[in-house]
């Protein structure tokens, strides 16, 4: 008899910065390949997977606004950046042999499907990884919020946040060696201690929908697969 999976369906949020590898800007294809390999491992376990990719490696609306642009216009540019990253991850996943679909919240018929909730669910049921591009489709939001929104819409069992460190710490572990890693936290801990892992809108949405957030290191090979098996190092927020 097959063992029951801990998670049937999950959403993985990868920030744009995570795709830069060692670069200062843009995409590192080796890093995309490494993340794709890990996603392949999770799909191989029989878990249904969808992805939300950020755009901070290319353009952030807030930076455009700080440079004098209209904020909403700059945010649309940021959303377009996330579509570029979604296409890059699609390419890496398909090279790894994982069937995918990109669905964009901003219509872009030549390169992606439009976001259609029920169709996205059907893709996952057929074993395809769905990559959601263009965030929520609305300015003044972030891709963290898009991740919580899509995870709730897709009925995911967990929202995985792949970061540069292996969980949530009491301080930045790269600056403070005494920083402690939390094994579990509540949503309210995250909000009240202002732990800079996800924005408040994303955490509130996850809380309202009883969606656990799991924070882990996306750069550790096989970490996503390990977390799905309940192994390795991570922080669970619930
Ligand atoms: N963005 C937006 N609405 C959304 C998601 C993203 O306007 O629903 C824009 C916003 O300008 C943001 C940029 O897209 O700065 C890139 O997304 P984000 O900063 O969340 O990317 P990450 O930090 O995860 O790389």
UniProtKB/TrEMBL annotation:
InterPro entries: AceGlu_kinase-like_sf (IPR036393), Asp/Glu/Uridylate_kinase (IPR001048), Uridylate_kinase (IPR011817), Uridylate_kinase_bac (IPR015963). Pathway: Pyrimidine metabolism; CTP biosynthesis via de novo pathway; UDP from UMP (UMPK route): step 1/1. SUPFAM superfamilies: Carbamate kinase-like. Pfam families: AA_kinase. It is an enzyme of class 2 (transferase). ATP binds at residues 13-16, 56, 60, 163-164, 169, 172. Its EC number is 2.7.4.22. It is found in: Cytoplasm. It comes from the Bacteria. CDD domains: AAK_UMPK-PyrH-Ec. It catalyses: UMP + ATP = UDP + ADP. Catalyzes the reversible phosphorylation of UMP to UDP. Belongs to the UMP kinase family. NCBIfam families: pyrH_bact. Homohexamer. This is Uridylate kinase. It comes from Craurococcus roseus.
